[in-house]
Amino acid sequence: MSSLKTQYTDLKASFATASPDLKKCGTLLSQLKLGLIQAGLLLPQGDLNANDLVVAREILEIGAFWSIRTQDVPSFDRYFSQLQTFYTDYAHLPPSQHEYPIRGLHLIRLLTQNRIADFHTALESLGAAAADSPYIAHPVNLERWLMEGSYAKVWGARAEAPAAEYGYFVDSLMGTIRNEIASCEETAYESLPLKDAATLLFFTSQSELLVFAQARGWQVNLTAGSITFAKKGEETMDIPKERIIASSLLYARELEQIV
């Protein structure tokens, strides 16, 4: 375990710098995980040394943050799954200052997958004290705003994230929201002014909108300053009026919030 602690000290120092060498940290994490497997600490069972468990937990926590920094979401999922044992089965360990930030990231991750039922299950499994943590309050607010359709508030939450890593998942969430809004636009309108489309989709620059429009197959007329949506097949023309009305109300509500 002494060699693990030496490598852990190196990892912790490297990751704590203003601009960490993520490649080096990734190499150290790979080496440390092998060491944890050999020491029986990656998926611990039974009565183990508390200090060793704390070190193992902190290594995995750094791994979770590293995964977000490198935009490796499957890796984050694996680290979180491994940390669950430490957070639940070894709750007698000294509290970790990283537990709520990582649990909060997991909650937002569930929102990006639209796993609302799993979100509430995970939230209910936390103690009452968790509600007072800004790391938990942030995803709770995001979920409420999503259910309300208050997408402008979700957009604004990017600047209010309690940790830098939260921004990555919020951006991912906005990508999902943009596609939902775009689908409604394609259903309810034949065309829209570029400016209105950018506002509805929360783009701050025309170049971002043009890239998105190209990906969706929209026709852009820069001279006229408009977007014409791709024509759908005949089977999509018989659209329930309620859906169009709901889409229009969504746009009106978003415009009011933005203004």
Topology, element by element:
Blueprint: H1 2-15, H2 22-38, H3 50-69, H4 73-88, H5 99-112, H6 116-124, H7 134-148, H8 151-156, H9 166-188, E1 191-193, H10 194-200, H11 206-216, E2 219-221, E3 226-228, H12 241-258
Antiparallel strand pairs: 1-3, 2-3
Helix pairs in contact: 1-2, 1-3, 2-3, 3-4, 5-6, 5-7, 5-9, 9-12
Structural summary, described in words:
This protein has 259 residues and is mainly alpha-helical. The protein has a domain at 1-91: Serine Threonine Protein Phosphatase 5, Tetratricopeptide repeat (Alpha Horseshoe), CATH 1.25.40. Helices cover 66% and strands 3% of the residues. It contains twelve helices and three strands; from the N terminus they run H-H-H-H-H-H-H-H-H-E-H-H-E-E-H. It has a three-stranded antiparallel β-sheet. Helix 5 runs antiparallel to helix 6 (116-124), helix 5 runs parallel beside helix 7 and helix 9 (166-188) packs across helix 12 (241-258). The chain is elongated, with a radius of gyration of 23 Å. Mean pLDDT is 87; it is low at 234-241.
Mean pLDDT: 87
Write the H/E string, N to C: HHHHHHHHHEHHEEH
Name the structural class.
mainly alpha
Residue runs with pLDDT of under 50 for 5 or more positions: 234-241
Beta content: under 5%
Tell me the major beta sheet: 3 strands, antiparallel
> Which geometry do the CA atoms define?
elongated
**What's the CATH class of the domain at 1-91, please?**
Mainly Alpha
The helical percent reads 55-70%
The CA-CA distance between the termini, in Å, is 58 Å
The number of helical runs is: 12
Radius of gyration, taken over Cα atoms and rounded to an integer in Å: 23 Å
CATH architecture of the domain at 1-91: Alpha Horseshoe
Number of strands: 3
Strand order of the largest sheet: 1-3-2
Which fold name fills CATH's third level, the topology of the domain at 1-91?
Serine Threonine Protein Phosphatase 5, Tetratricopeptide repeat
